């Protein structure tokens, strides 16, 4: 248990029937009249929904222990994803629902962070950008290079994103894992 005076960004709270909420930001407010309160922005750990919530100062809140471990994606076992703990070398099987959109950017051997609460994986955190090879894209038409147009390209993970017209099959590019946007070429 903690009070709202102890809140920190990234802290995970257990509210409303055991739901886990991560503190995105908080602000202590002391108005001229009345009691102090804490204005927070909370993100649901499982659904990703963000809500604003206000607590009276000093209110007791239940905190949840979330273990964030460095893991490496090993392989896919049917629909499930198998990760290996980089410290203990233990294997952890995670459902596709928990992996979510991270699956679009996962390659075997890739490092990421897995958040675990009471033995259950909650979500996977990838680096902000990853380097992936283009498996296939249509060739750009000569003369198209001056326009800022994009074309679809299939990455080695099977995910499709929009890339500039000058990008060719086999090139390595940087992709933003939060938005799925093309960030640039990787010079090898």
From TrEMBL:
Single GO MF annotation: translation elongation factor activity
Domain Translation elongation factor P/YeiP central: 68-122
Record keywords: Cytoplasm, Elongation factor, Protein biosynthesis
Pathway: Protein biosynthesis; polypeptide chain elongation
Main location: cytoplasm
Record domain Elongation factor P C-terminal: where: 130-185
InterPro entries the UniProt entry points to: Elong-fact-P_C, NA-bd_OB-fold, Rib_uL2_dom2, Transl_elong_fac_P/YeiP, Transl_elong_KOW-like, Transl_elong_P/YeiP_cen, Transl_elong_P/YeiP_CS, Transl_elongation_fac_P
Pfam family, one: Elong-fact-P_C
Subcellular location: Cytoplasm
Family, as annotated: Belongs to the elongation factor P family.
NCBIfam families (alphabetical): efp (TIGR00038), PRK00529.1 (NF001810)
Role, per record: Involved in peptide bond synthesis. Stimulates efficient translation and peptide-bond synthesis on native or reconstituted 70S ribosomes in vitro. Probably functions indirectly by altering the affinity of the ribosome for aminoacyl-tRNA, thus increasing their reactivity as acceptors for peptidyl transferase.
Name of the protein described by the UniProt record: Elongation factor P
Organism: Streptomyces glaucosporus
Lineage: Bacteria, Bacillati, Actinomycetota, Actinomycetes, Kitasatosporales
């Amino acid at each position: 248990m903690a009070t709202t005076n102890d809140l920190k960004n990234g802290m995970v709270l257990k509210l409303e029937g055991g739901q886990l909420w991560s503190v995105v930001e908080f602000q202590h407010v002391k108005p001229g009249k009345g009691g102090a309160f804490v204005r927070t922005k909370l993100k649901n750990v499982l659904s990703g929904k963000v809500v604003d919530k206000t607590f009276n100062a000093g209110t007791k809140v239940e905190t949840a222990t979330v273990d964030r471990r460095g893991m490496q994606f090993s392989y896919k076992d049917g629909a499930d994803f198998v990760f290996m703990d980089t410290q203990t070398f233990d294997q952890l099987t995670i459902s596709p629902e928990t992996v979510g959109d991270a699956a679009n950017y996962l390659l075997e051997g890739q490092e990421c962070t897995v958040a675990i609460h009471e033995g259950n994986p909650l979500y996977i955190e990838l680096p902000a950008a990853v380097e992936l090879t283009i498996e296939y894209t249509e060739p750009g038409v000569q003369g198209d290079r001056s326009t800022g147009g994009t074309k679809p390209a299939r990455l080695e993970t099977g995910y499709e994103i929009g890339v500039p017209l000058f990008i060719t099959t086999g090139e390595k590019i940087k992709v933003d894992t939060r938005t799925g946007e093309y960030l640039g070429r990787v010079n090898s």
